[in-house]
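DM from R.C. (forwarded with permission)

"hey, sorry to bug you on a friday — could you get me a structure for this? deadline for the figure draft is monday and I only need the backbone to look sensible"
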Amino acid sequence: MIADVEPLVLLTYLAPLSLFVVALVAHMTPPARLFRGAWIAVVASFVFALLTAATAFAFGPLVSPAIGFGDFSLLLRLDALSAVMLLLVSAIGMLVIHFSRNYLGGDARQGRFLGDLSLTIGAVMLLVTAGNLFHLVAAWIGTSLALHRLLVFYSERRGAVIAARKKFVVARISDLCLVVAAVLFARAFGVTDLGALAEAARAALAAGTVPAGVGVASVLVVAAAALKSAMFPTHGWLLEVMETPTPVSALLHAGLLNAGTFLVVRLGDLMFLTSLGLHLLIIVGGFTAIFASVAMIMQNNVKVSLAYSSAAHMGFMLMLCGFGAHSVAIMHLVAHSFYKAHAFLSSGSIVDYIRELGSKDLDGTARPLAVLGSMIAAAAIFIAFAVLLGIDMLKRPGETALGVIFVMTMTQLIVKSTVGKPRLFVVGRTLLAAVAVTLAFFALELSAAWLLSGTVAAFPAPTVLTQVVMVLAVLSFAAVTLLQTMLPTLVNTPWGQVAYVHLKNGLYANALFDRLIGALR
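My reply, with the result:
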């Protein structure tokens, strides 16, 4: 049941609008006063988000009056998904703007920086509340253009300009893919309202008929999401945008990269009409997750390591979308956003942390029996919680695959306590940590499933080919998990040293991308 007009929904327009006003007067207002304006605007946005989220959860999806002409109009849609995303964006916005209070103090460009920051946050708010295809595409392009202004903030730095240029090329290809996909979806179903599109897609799936052009549109959506979220091999720009101000890095990694996952989840019912898009999400997202997570541990630059971490998380979330676990993907998105915002805003203190840690060598190779025992312990903890909570992990293949990957992750956590001369106290404490993490995983997954029930698309029964792709993805993660437990030994072998060099350089994909677009010239 959708309420056609709710006065409170109109307040949501004030959230991005107030930030746009701050951006508009950025060149005419002293930085101190501009900060107060931006802070008031983003706090008000968070309050509006709380009010509209409560209304959406209480009364169901809400839509605002359309502003524009026919299909070419702005239309806000507030449901559980957009409410969660709006709360996330406004919360991250408050953190970033508060951090920027004294950032660039005394710099003549401080006002422009605060203005561009407000513009970008407002554009993301419009994206997550989009109610029709035109609104979604316009906001998708707008967030990218606003971000570009921040990426070239230090236009005198050659490295920053090259990275922004590469991001600009990738973003325009992503925009084109989404525009064509939107046109194909609109032609196939005759509507542009996202709610009506979802209903039409569910009806087509139930009838077993897929309109012409939907398969191509689904592949284009995957391409748009992959390019937006820095998937391999176009991830290189993400590693090089480190010459932007630190708040920009935090906003980029905690917010804007998530747009790819949000897009796929928002169009989930359309994506489930064909299997090819799901296969591409699993393959591209899974490979990027594995590649970036391995390359991350080869880096000695803190921010580059964090960039690889972000790419790995983005890949994992897109893979979850391919598995059909949309609510879990959104749960992961929210958790990753707060973690990565904190990681970038506190990255300057990592040197002090390493000094306090000392130079103790904690590396070592786990013994095979220890790996096997850790895997059994992790599986036992996971299965015990699933049984206690009455969860049938075999009911949905996507969640089964996710459960296996989670067990492998816990295996890595437990096995580290057995390296070297294991102490019973350390092993016991690690097992308790594994129990706590597993409990948190189930709590968050169940909460997300309850919160987003009826809003995100329900995964239909996967085809045999889709199940095969899922199994291959799980086996790939298992192989990488095993290799990572043996890493200290492997890097001392001749072929391990060669692999180390190649992975540290990201398999040279970024260098090839530089040559492709002529950035080095």
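R.C.: lifesaver. Confidence is low (pLDDT under 50) at residues 1-5, 356-363.
me: no worries. The longest strand covers residues 67-69.
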